[in-house]
DNA sequence: CTGAAAGCGCTTACAG
DNA sequence: CTGAAAGCGCTTACAG
């Protein structure tokens, strides 16, 4: 395999000059440069990137830790990160934790071992103190998930108020028996959306019955099972707010399998506005998060941290939007217009 | 930041011994080892992995090039790869091409630049000669997609026969006016499934009308639009075989929006058996691919290539399975049993 | 079982 | 504008 030294010899220059042609061409005379480039092309020389990484102590890799790579939500966020990374010459290393906190911790070691220049966490379930310490030493950004009172750059929406908005929508339709299928309750996002739910209920003096709160695990199947439980109650709810669209999808399936009509017998609100929420029949009322933009912004902030640029704002809170669709709209338009790009 | 040399001094040994404690502990005496480990823990020393990569000329990174990270199909394949990689101490670097052939080519450079020890391509749309050459120099595996007559290890199903099977299912239901929504026709998979479709039609002496073949681009939206075109024909088809479930989902939505009942007026078959195909109403008849196993096997083969182990079989062809569901089953079970894990 | 020394392939501060 | 030289932090063949 051709090395820089070999190229240098062929071009009758020093390795330093070859390096400059590749990394700082403006420092080399036009003549030398084209001579060297010709040799590079001729022998198809590719610099040994690991050697460069080692020499410069920069990898141009960043790590993104995702709780679930198969989720439609996170893959959109990833896209945003990816685009900004690529445009700035960074590779994305993907760490999929599959919602396992130990694996989340393991990935952090990649930072300590200098395998990556920075890290974006889309899941923040580990020790707060450790993360805070880490972020004083390394470029680190949280996105989507966050930790209360943590002094680390964070990009997200306001989950409490979004959940409140979703619940208020159900209340405004006249529902009083409203249930919530939460996410895993050890995750802050789940607690925040649950809090928003309770706030909306309480401010209308509506009872929050404990059997109306069922803990899911973000997945379709748990949405299905928890909805089945809710429907089996002596007094089943007439409306349900699910932590995310995937569980809302499961809840709707459970209703159908139980002969319960959505939205007439049961109104359902989801969260995230994944593509399936508009495709499903009925389409699902949901909270739209700017997934791509969250990813984009998180990467932009990470770049600033890596380049030691000043951060004007440590917490970025994006706006979300309630999108009302068939799962809460009693007058169903059979020919609902297809929502597509 | 603590270096190996610092640890060595603190433990009163040479750096070589510290290195051995970390990489080959069996070569070090029990006493020395525990002394060194104590220091390592005390100062929380983490080896500089890039230095190690540089020294050993092995990165323990592998690259997976995916055509679309947001696809439910590919993320399952990724999981299989990931699990085997992790178990063997490899990190996965993700290259998302977004179906762009130039980006596919760019990712290949990571191999030439020695940033990764090997590569799994889930998309193979670039120059055959180049790939073949590459695979003689570097560990390289194709999975899902492949190239005809290419002498590179490949893991996939037999797409021609699967497509034939899917089409024969429609024929066996009495359909004669059968359409096909293909994938992008510059991709071999699309051509293979189209070929299987034609084979099934011709062997039954059924006409393959050119207007019955519509080229999509793998996405929901194109399934929708192409189905709309098919339904607008003077003699619309009574059945359609879509390249994948995502487009089948789009086709079904188009039928619904046009007041065409699935499966009574239009039977639909998809491909891949993504989760949504069982959730959708009607659930979708499809070809199940062993997604996770394909990923797993591809990574196992890559490991063999990396370790210079012998390969018994360059082409692995997995079995697929036709799963008959509501989109082709006229007697609809309202209480269809939910298929879940 | 342990240490001294070489070297992986680049980049860059320094000198000219 | 260009070159000689140092050095990034490890691992391993060699010697003892």
From TrEMBL, chains A, B:
Domain of life the protein comes from: Bacteria
Pfam family, one: LacI
Cleaved signal peptide residues: none
InterPro entries, A to Z: HTH_LacI, LacI/GalR-like_sensor, Lambda_DNA-bd_dom_sf, Peripla_BP_I
SUPFAM superfamilies in the record: lambda repressor-like DNA-binding domains (SSF47413), Periplasmic binding protein-like I (SSF53822)
Swiss-Prot/TrEMBL keywords: DNA-binding, Repressor, Transcription, Transcription regulation
An example molecular function term from Gene Ontology annotations: DNA binding
PROSITE patterns, alphabetized: HTH_LACI_1, HTH_LACI_2
Domain HTH lacI-type: start-end pairs: 2-56
Transmembrane segments: none
Xref: PANTHER family: HTH-TYPE TRANSCRIPTIONAL REPRESSOR CYTR, LACI-RELATED TRANSCRIPTIONAL REPRESSOR
UniProt name for this protein: LacI family DNA-binding transcriptional regulator
Organism, scientific name: Metabacillus endolithicus
